[in-house]
Amino acid sequence: MQIPHTHLTTTHSTNSELIAWVIDSFDKSFDKNAQNNDNHQMHFSRPHLLTADRQTSGRGQHGRTWQSPIGNVYFSLYIPTQKFSKNQHFFIKTPIDGRLSLAIALALVKMPIIQQINTTLKSQNLPTIGVKWVNDVGFYQNAQFQKLSGILIEPVNHQGKMLGIVIGIGLNVHKPPVLTKITQETLNYQAISLANFLTQPIELNEIYEMMITACYKAICQFNEFYNKVFFNNFLIEFSQFDVLKDKNILIDLPNSQKTGQAVGIDNNGCLLVCTKNQQIEPIWTGTIHILSND
Predict the structure, then answer these.
(1) What is the per-residue DSSP string for 28-55?
(2) Which residue of 129, 157, 268, 285 is surrounded by the most CB atoms within 10 Å?
């Protein structure tokens, strides 16, 4: 799919940069005296991809940082809402909910390069790469999550209007950050990269193309989620790549904790947890910790 693509050597955050560009484009479109001399040449009514070699202030979920060494993918894709889109085939329907992150994560896992890795891992009876609710890609090695990719989706709101969304994806390709207890930011995980599993060189431009295709498929899928049949099919497929399923977990909630067994997701994209009382409870948000080895 051909989408305008701007690549920067360095930026503070591809998401923040792209959001600023979208808002600037919107403002200039109503200013008769404005001159568009920007190198990125984007318009708020059309998709645009921004990538960078490195970020100085990369952002993750819940205000956490995203370590951004050179050699990885820092990818932000702007998609206008249906109301503001000039492209009849590539837009996002509203309202947006957490199921979009799940759809994008699943589409990333299904990229050919990751499926190639999973085939090798399966042949060696090793854990395969899947989706960790709600926005991470990787696998569990004992109780520690091995994180390959993370997703940060942000709405672009301006003057009381939702112009679109920016899908931010960090994917470790050549050089995973070395994380300490401080940089883990209370999470029990380590970073892995595609290079940990592949012997052949990986070109970032090839990865960009795969990721654009994955995002396009995920957005088209999300736009059909109002149809229960489509979403039920998604639930079945997601279950095959759900790395939390059947694991005993502890969830840090805003004002409490909950323990139980992860048993999948519901129709709203919530994590379903079976408590010690055999009650199935939906979880909207929280930090996940594994309680026992599987």
Answers:
(1) HHT-TT-----SS---TTS-EEEEEEEE
(2) 129
Calculate the dihedral angle through the C-alpha atoms of 64, 70, 76, 77, rounding to the nearest 10 degrees.
-150
Give the model confidence (pLDDT) of 130-151 as tens digits.
Answer: 999 989 999 999 888 999 999 9
Q: Are residues 278 and 182 in the same domain?
A: no
Tell me the pTM: 0.91
Instruction: Report in angstroms the alpha-carbon separations of 103 from 57, 75, 254, 282.
Output: 26, 17, 25, 18
Q: Yes or no: say if 134 and 142 are a contact pair by the CB < 8 Å rule.
A: no
Note whether 248 and 155 are same-domain residues: no
Per-residue pLDDT, averaged over 161-169, amounts to: 97
For 90, the domain range is: 5-243
C-alpha dihedral sign at 200, 205, 206, 211: positive
Residues 162, 129, single domain; the answer is: yes
pLDDT tens digit string along 200-211? 888 999 999 999
Taking a C-beta distance cutoff of 8 angstroms, is the pair 13, 57 a contact?
A: yes
Report how far residue 52's alpha carbon sits from residue 50's, in angstroms, rounded to the nearest whole number: 7
Q: 18: which 2 tokens?
A: 């792209």
Q: Strand pairing partners for 151? A: 169
The secondary structure of 55-83 as a DSSP string is ESS-B-GGG-B----TTSEEEEEEEEBTT
3-class secondary-structure state, position 177: coil
* CATH number for the domain harbouring residue 292: 2.30.30.100
Burial of 102 (0-12, 13-18, 19+ CB in 10 A): buried
Alpha-helical (H) ranges within the chain are 14-29, 99-109, 112-123, 204-222, 228-239
Residue after which a domain boundary falls, among 226, 243, 260: 243
Token readout for 114 is 């990751």
